[in-house]
Amino acid sequence: MSGVALALEVVVVFFLALFLLHRYGDFRKQHRMVLFATLLAWFLCFLIVFILPLDVSTTIYNQCKTDNQAHLVAIKTVNHDNSSNSSVFPTQRVPKICQKPWSYIPDGILPVFWRVVYWTSQFLTWLLIPFMQSYARSGGFSISGKIKTALIENAIYYGTYLLIFCSLLIYVAVTPKLHLSWSGLRTIGITAANTWGLFLLVLLLGYGLVEIPRTYWRASCHGQLLAKTYFKAAKLMTEKADAEENLEDVMEDVRTVNETIKYNHPLRKCIDTILKKCPVEYQEKMGRNMDDYEDFDDKGNPYPSKKSLVKLHKQVIYAVQRHNRTQVQWQILLDKAFHLEDVAKNESSSTHKFVHSFPSAEPPGWISKYLYTLSPLFICVCSLQSCPIFSSTHVLLRWLH
After folding, report:
1. Is residue 356 part of a domain?
2. How far is Cα 53 from Cα 101, in angstroms, rounded to an integer?
3. Which side of the chain, N or C, has fewer Cβ within a 10 Å radius?
């Protein structure tokens, strides 16, 4: 079984990350590079959690063998020292039985594995993913322009890391007992990265440790949860209206620019790129004008610069993403509110059958179909299995009395 558990968990975790990416993402709309980076990041995060128990069990087994070997060497040394005096016998402790775990990983594999996982995670966290996020939100129309914008936006992000790194570097340089070397610089970089992560952990963990258990605790009270959902819906509705208004304003600017720059203008390609980022209903409204090919130099109307088009492109990307995000959140919150209302109505129902106010238009999946079909059988089986438990409890109570 040496190495089989590690290989099995790597395969299982990979398919788990792939399933979650398919569940929450759209393979057809996303770029392959984005899908690969997201899959790799999720895969490494889950891999750390799943492989850690294997590492612990292997370490305990190796430590047990090391302790037994050290104890055996100590006994041989004492026996050799006391060989001249036959009347002195050292007290020998029975060595512990080291049972090899089924998840044992051979020596030399885990150090290489953790180095690959750690440095790949560092590369994704500090370089690739922040750069890809800024690159996707950039309003540039060329690859070089997007790269330049992404580097400028990440200056604060990298500057914070550089500030922590320089602070630790100054501390090492001032301390006389410490000497700078390549391994020392690498240690300082790792410490700086961990310091940033621990700083965010302290800020976010305090909220999560209180809010997450409280949310699950209050989820049993459907009335209170429904009132809280109403409050969230009112708040989200304001944010949704603000996002729709912002999108309308941005689309109005796009319409104005689209009517100003005709199809024989050098910047028309930029306009076409902006129009592709707009929602479909707005693209249909911004149809081609009858005077598409009139000479743009004959008019005295001011034309927007490429810099202003880059800014408008960025505004369009942000407005569309915000609008889509609020729409999805609004739909999820509505489904939750309708479900809680149905729960409140069915609590007082005498039919003992859950009735939905708004039945789903989609056909039920095969899993839910079989679960609903087998629910009476499942109830009967549970009832029959409960009889021996009650009878054994009754016998135990009589025996105690």
Report:
1. no
2. 11
3. C
Domain presence at residue 132: yes
Domain C-terminal end among 171, 199, 218: 218
Cα separation, 386 vs 230, in Å, equals 40
Q: What is the 3-state secondary structure (H, E, C) of 123-149?
A: HHHHHHHHHHHHHHHCCCCCHHHHHHH
Q: Which of 91, 97, 68 lies closest to 78 in space, CA to CA?
A: 91
Contact 68, 98 (CB under 8 A): yes
Distance between CA atoms of residues 47 and 41, nearest Å: 10
Total of domains in the chain: 3
Do residue 251 and residue 281 come from a single domain?
yes
Contacts of 268 by beta carbon, 8 Å cutoff, 6+ apart: 261, 262
Residues 68 and 126 in one domain: yes
User: What gap in Å lies between CA 216 and CA 167, rounded to an integer?
Assistant: 42
Grouping H, G, I as helix, E, B as strand and the rest as coil, residue 102 is coil
Please, are residues 251 and 284 in contact by the beta-carbon 8 Å criterion?
no
Spell out the per-residue pLDDT of the chain, length 401, in tens: 567 888 899 999 999 999 999 988 888 888 888 899 999 999 999 999 899 888 888 888 888 888 777 656 555 555 555 555 544 445 555 667 778 888 888 888 889 999 999 999 989 988 888 899 889 888 888 888 888 888 888 887 778 777 877 887 787 778 777 677 777 777 777 877 787 778 878 887 777 788 888 888 888 888 888 899 999 999 999 999 999 999 999 999 999 888 888 777 888 888 888 988 898 888 888 765 434 445 545 455 577 888 889 999 999 999 999 999 999 999 999 999 998 888 888 877 777 777 777 776 655 555 555 545 545 555 666 666 666 665 555 545 555 55
Which residues contact residue 259 at a Cβ distance below 8 angstroms, ignoring those fewer than 6 apart?
Answer: 289
Q: Whole domain around residue 113: which residue ranges? A: 1-83+92-141
Planar angle of CA 149, 150, 155, nearest 5 degrees: 100
- Retrieve residue 140's tokens: 């540039």
Which of 218, 241, 261 is a domain's end point?
218
CA dihedral (168, 169, 173, 176) positive or negative: positive
